[in-house]
Write a structure and sequence with these properties.
Layout: H1 3-20, H2 30-44, H3 57-69, H4 80-96, H5 102-105, H6 107-119, H7 121-127, H8 133-149, H9 153-164, H10 170-188, H11 195-221, H12 229-240, H13 253-259, E1 262-264, E2 267-269, H14 273-284, H15 288-306, H16 316-327, H17 337-364, H18 385-395, E3 404-407, H19 414-417, E4 424-427, E5 439-442, H20 447-450, E6 454-462, E7 465-472, H21 473-481
Helix pairs in contact: 1-4, 1-6, 2-3, 4-6, 4-7, 4-8, 6-16, 6-17, 7-17, 8-9, 8-16, 9-11, 10-15, 14-15, 14-16, 15-16, 18-21
Amino acid sequence: MNRYTVFWLLILSLAGWLRFHDLDNRPVHADEATGARIVARALDGDYRFDPVHYHGPVFHRLGQWTSSLAGHHRWQEMEMLPLRQLTALAGLLTVALPLLGVRRFGQAPMLVSSLLLATSPLLVYYSRMFIHESLLALFGGLVLVQLASGRAYGAIGFWLGLMYATKETFVLTLAGWGIAAVLLWGLLGKSRPPVRDLFQKHRGDFMIGIVSFLAISLAFYTDGFRHWQGAIDAVRTYFIYDTTEGHDKAAWWYLDFLAWPLKSGGLWWWTGAPLILAILAAWKCRTRTVRFLALAILAQLAVYSAIAYKTPWLMVLPWAQVLLLAGFSLRIVPPGNSWRWGAACVLTTLVSWQTLQSWRSSFVYPSEARNRFAYVPTSPDMENLNGWLDQLAAAYPELPLSPIGIIGHGYWPLPWYLRQRGPVGHWDHPPASLARLPLVFSMVDLTAELAETHVPIPRGLRDGNPVMVWVRNDFWDASVAQPHP
């Protein structure tokens, strides 16, 4: 076993530990819960792609197969751990992608890229969540690997098709790559071949790529070519998609999030060091691959920044490309042991800092407001909810603690935590029978409706968003009368 094999095994082991260790240590995020609910519909056989919301079908189909393998076939049986293992695996495979570039680019740059991918707090944190971005980053990375090889157009089309069927933001990544290709074409000057000759030479390859793209994307959107409305909806989604309110931010928000240091809750957070290495690589390395990657990153950041809707996880794929580019900075290190030792010290410091931030964000403060990567996190109070409800039910065993009512909007991930508690009804406005329910979770003020029949108990739902739990008087009185140790 040579030293490079040892290095790769160590990097992948570290990446695996950061992504899989204690994977169920954080409360279920609202986006995870809604994704799991759609997986449950797929398990029930009634899933159809929704062009208005909830993104593409690949994520939910893979979640369906993962849950089935885990022996979970209904909403009430589902657990979050197998679903998170799916995205954690995608994150680990993304770390391994530079292995595919070793023959073309050499061991050292690819090892650095992989090490930065392995320890990135942004990538670690969101690969431990059941959301689309880890899959999108993996498929996008595979597209770049195939592009760098200059062949396998069928594979390029296949991975692009999976990106398209994973999330509609695929088009933003594709736009960035397209802009980069046009700019790079312009930079080639007289050395570029005529477009007509290029097309004639690769016409067959282009057709193979297009057929591959259409075949895999349509297979998912049409549910195995059975429901062709899905093919139409796959296009309609770009015109009718409805984003969730409350996520509009300034144009410079991503730059601030990725590059600017932040002190929060007594802790310093900064992820910008790899960006410096990426800039150095783009400045000094003039190969076509490095130029394309640098231009693509700039174009994607510009496109994403121009859109008002912004969340941290949308940067997972662009940031993965930054980390890939940063690995090429090793090529600008001058010869000589002193320079090499200096570069090793810089890299060790950077990786240690990234690992520390990954440990803090994913293991120490996974759902706290001080965590820079915890975006609208679920309150840890939700993890104790069912234990408290069990105590209420045990205090008054003569009657069931159901059905349960949820009133208002923005209540996710609450249905996930109530999935095993019998009938749960959701209403935008209070129904006439509300006072008869033993338990009501409310996102709106129900004092006028329930003050005489229920006792209000505030509980945490999401950061800055509490939920009021109205417990019917008979259950509450029985609970209060119970002896407490």
